[in-house]
Design a protein that fits this description.
rod-shaped, 4-stranded mixed beta sheet, disordered N terminus, 34 strands, 25 helices
């Protein structure tokens, strides 16, 4: 075990290094560069000045450390590693976390006098300078530590600043140059580098203890490929912790540090080739080069008395058997569909300005910053969502993915309503960043946007209608107002943002449903296009757009969702499923919008909290508006278009379905605690999905139902608040009287008042032809949206005159008006008939030539007086 305190000899060696090294270095340099004047005072003085003028302070940067994503084990509640991202695979260890045999191996092979010298092996350094490095580097552990620090500083800058636009090949070459410049530079540069290395090493020895330097070296050294530090190397090559390394394993690793990629053990087909191109140092030859280097280390350990002959013989006889255990890295190693959750979080760190001003800074932080990122994912709900996806949606449709039919896609996302925490993200494809031409694979996160997931979103379809409903309520309208939702051209729309617009386009319902007169409550339940157009024609399109904005919904590219023309209220814009879920969560959360977030917290390598992207929960809707919207949306899930997704498990749920030209289909469902958005459709936007041999329209329900059930089981849910009575009342409108107006004038009057007009057949009337003679219903209070039938006069009507008294006079009056007369007689011929009225009655308008019946009373003559009785 290396000593934990600096010895007196070590301190003395350091002092000797500080006091005398300039002279020795000067002589070495002079002897190498200008042998003729090696012993002259001028040369020595010049060299001493050169050495003394070199920088002496070397700042040890934080090690390049992997960023680790954590997710909770649902059974234990403990955080577990999901994956890592790194340029250098490193697992820093403490001094007592390394096997003693590893310290012995590295010291015997690299610097047996480490604990007794002052930081520089002068004899070895002189030999290295004179030989140009052909007899070894001659560097102490301290000097090698310096080299590695300088290499890391250099590599950390690759891909930033002027090198930001380098290709990966160029970056690899630049990193190789960092190693070359720090280790094998020759000539004057080499001498300068060696002197600077010595200067830094002495400075390190004055600032740090021997144990700190030794451990620092073991934690920074490269062991081949991307494996840095003894912790990562022990795990990668042999599957053990550094504390459990055997003698043979420790000697093999100690032997690697001089030429790491030559001696690496993860290339069974050979880590190198000979001059003829044949592989060497392979599994077939027992990793001969590494074995030879291991034996060299064992020789040094035996000579130093660190091991016995018996231990030496056993280790030499034992073959090197690697147990390669790659560190999990990237989202591709994350099991199942959770890889897409991982990719979404990666997108946040690489693209959100909270993690750096430039893409290069953010990528560097991800792969070198040693962050500990704790995710919001709930593995229980994630598992349920994945199972629902796998059970119901294939990764692609064989033979139906091409330029004509597009590509099958499906995604789900669930959000905790009261916090915005994203609980699951899944999709139908398998995750891969390298497979590009197979429709079964994708690295896009369909649930996300361009910034976080590289996805454009999808047409929201009827899920977008909720914003018209919300604006309807915010402008004081009731969900029980009656509107004319029949298919028609809605001619004008108000827009206070861009100006009112006129419309001449007939927008149909799904399957050309003719629509009906109804209420927003029913329109929402049935998702009737023309019903929502009727609503939008009475409110402000700008208000709808503002509501969309304050509820956090943006286009896939992050820009504002426009609501400037009628069809946009029906969901023609591409929006991300995460935004849709968050908007509906706002309704379920009493109008409080919470920014979706996939990260609970982040700490740096030292355990300090790292600031997250800005997120908050704000009151986006008044509670009464949210409660009334929830009231309407619950009906969708109980007896409307979303009922097939309702798990009917006792937890109240609200929701909305959506389709867009049959190519995109949606279901959003929510309890008071968790909101889930499900999208199924064509990820490439083509409309020809009706050619797919698969019922994608219903599949949204078969995916959503088990996810909603799982969310309800895990998180529960309460009853939604009662709706606002003022926003659910029945509303009556004043119907004007248009009788006597022309058909055109009457139509305008009624339409301006918000009523549909039906012109019926002409009727008999004394009014002029074309003048409205009748309207049904008549003027008064009626429900909005009532269809009013108006009937024009044919100009041929006759008003039945009022007659009474004499039958002859009455008949004469009626006939004189152009009417036929019937009736007016008594059954008793002797009776006298008196006219009491007509049928039709007086004033009734009838067609000329119509027959009018006389109503009469009959008075019998008095009976004769009987003769007196004789």
């Amino acid at each position: 075990m290396p000593e934990t305190k600096r010895t007196a000899g070590g301190v003395l060696g350091g002092l000797l290094g500080v006091v005398g090294l300039s002279t020795v270095a000067g002589v070495l340099v002079a002897a190498t560069v200008t042998p003729a004047i090696a012993l002259s005072g001028a040369a020595a003085s010049s060299a001493i000045t050169l050495f003394d003028n070199l920088p002496s302070a070397l700042e040890i940067d934080e090690l390049m450390l992997p960023t680790t994503f954590y997710w909770k084990n649902p059974d234990t509640g403990e955080d577990e590693v999901m994956t890592q991202f790194y340029d250098q695979n490193r697992d820093p260890v403490g001094f007592n976390d390394v096997a003693t045999v590893m310290y012995d191996a590295i010291l015997s092979s690299e610097d047996k006098n480490f604990y007794s010298h002052g930081g520089v092996d002068l004899v070895g350094t002189a030999r290295a300078i004179v030989s140009g490095g052909s007899q070894g580097g001659g560097s102490s552990i301290s000097q090698q530590y310096v080299k590695n620090i300088l290499i890391q500083k250099c590599e950390a800058e690759v891909g930033t600043g002027d090198t930001a636009d380098m290709t990966q090949e160029e970056k690899d070459a630049a990193k190789q140059a960092c190693f070359t410049d720090a280790t094998v530079a020759s000539g004057v540069e080499g001498y300068q580098r060696k002197l600077q290395e010595m200067r830094y090493a002495i400075a390190l020895e004055q600032k740090y203890s021997k144990d700190e330097i030794l451990l620092g070296y073991l934690n920074i050294a490269n062991f081949g490929g991307q494996n840095y530090g003894i912790g990562a190397a022990a795990h990668y090559y042999f599957g053990v912790d550094a504390a459990n390394l055997t003698l043979g394993q420790a000697a093999a690793l100690a032997g690697m540090v001089q030429t790491p990629n030559l001696y690496r053990l993860d290339r069974p087909d050979g880590s190198w080739t000979d001059k003829d191109g044949n592989p060497i140092n392979s599994a077939a030859d027992g990793y001969a080069l590494t074995k030879g280097r291991q034996i060299y280390v064992l020789d040094r350990m035996l000579a130093d008395g660190k091991i016995t002959q018996e231990e030496y013989d056993a280790a030499v006889a034992e073959p090197i058997v690697p147990a390669i255990t790659p560190a999990d890295t990237g989202c591709g190693v994350v099991p199942g569909k959770a890889a897409y959750f991982c990719q979404y979080v990666r997108g946040i760190i690489e693209n959100d300005e909270a993690f750096g001003a430039t893409p290069e800074e953010r990528t560097k932080l991800l792969k070198q910053g040693g962050l500990n990122v704790y995710l919001t994912i709930d593995r229980r709900l994630q598992a349920a969502a994945e199972q629902a996806m796998v059970d119901n949606v294939p990764t692609s449709i064989e033979g139906y993915t091409n330029a004509d039919t597009g590509r099958l896609g499906a995604a789900t996302v669930s959000i905790e309503t009261k916090t915005g925490r994203i609980l699951e993200i899944t999709q139908n494809t398998n995750f891969s960043e390298t497979i590009k031409d197979d429709p079964n694979y994708s690295s896009l996160v369909y649930a996300g946007n361009q910034k976080y997931g590289n996805s454009n979103g999808f047409e929201g379809g009827s899920t977008f209608k909720v914003f018209t409903l919300l604006e309807w309520l915010q402008e004081g309208h009731s969900v029980n107002e009656v509107l004319n939702g029949r298919a028609q051209i809605f001619k004008s729309f108000r827009n206070s943002c861009t100006g009112d617009i006129s419309n001449n386009t007939l927008i149909q319902n799904f399957a050309k449903n003719p629509g009906y007169v109804g209420t927003p409550m029913r329109f929402t339940s049935d998702s009737l296009n023309t019903g929502f157009l009727a609503m939008a024609s009475k409110i402000d399109l700008c208000g709808i757009q503002n509501t969309v904005e304050k509820m956090g919904v943006r286009l896939g590219d992050g820009s504002v969702v426009p609501v400037e023309v009628p069809f946009q209220i029906l969901g023609s814009n591409n929006i991300p499923p995460i935004d849709v879920a968050a908007a509906y969560a706002t309704i379920a959360n009493n109008g409080v919008y919470c920014t979706p977030k996939a990260i609970d917290r982040i700490t740096d390598a030292n355990g300090n909290e790292v600031a997250l992207p800005e997120a908050s929960c704000t009151q986006a809707l008044e509670p009464n508006i949210a409660a009334t919207a929830a009231y309407a949306l619950q009906a969708v899930m109980t007896n409307g278009s979303g009922r097939a997704s309702n798990p009917y498990d006792g937890t109240p749920v609200l929701g909305k379905t959506g389709t867009h030209e049959a190519k995109q289909t949606w279901l959003v469902g929510s309890s008071t605690n968790v909101t889930t958005a499900v999208w199924v459709g064509n990820s490439e936007g083509y409309a020809n999905v009706d050619r797919w041999p698969w019922n994608h329209l219903y599949t949204r329900h078969s995916i959503a139902r088990p996810i909603l059930a799982a969310a309800n089981s895990l998180y529960g849910g309460d009853g939604f608040p009662a709706p606002d009575p003022n926003l659910t009342k029945t509303v009556l409108y004043d119907l004007p009287n248009v009788v006597g107006q022309s058909i055109e004038a009457a139509t305008k009057t009624l339409e301006d008042a918000g009523f549909e007009v039906i012109v019926g057949e002409a009727v008999d009337s004394t009014a002029g032809a074309g003048i409205v003679a009748q309207q049904d219903p008549g003027a008064g209070k009626v429900a909005g949206g009532t269809a009013v039938t108006i009937r024009p006069s044919n100009g041929q009507g006759v008003s039945v005159p009022a007659v009474s008294g004499s039958v002859d006079q009455a008949r004469s009056a009626l006939q004189g008006a152009g009417l036929n007369v019937a009736g007016g007689t008594c059954s008793n011929p002797a009776a006298t008939a008196t006219v009491t009225g007509t049928n039709p009655g007086a004033g009734t308008v009838v067609a000329r030539g119509s027959t009018v019946n006389l109503n009469v009373t009959c008075t019998a003559p008095p009976a004769p007086t009987p003769a007196p009785t004789p």
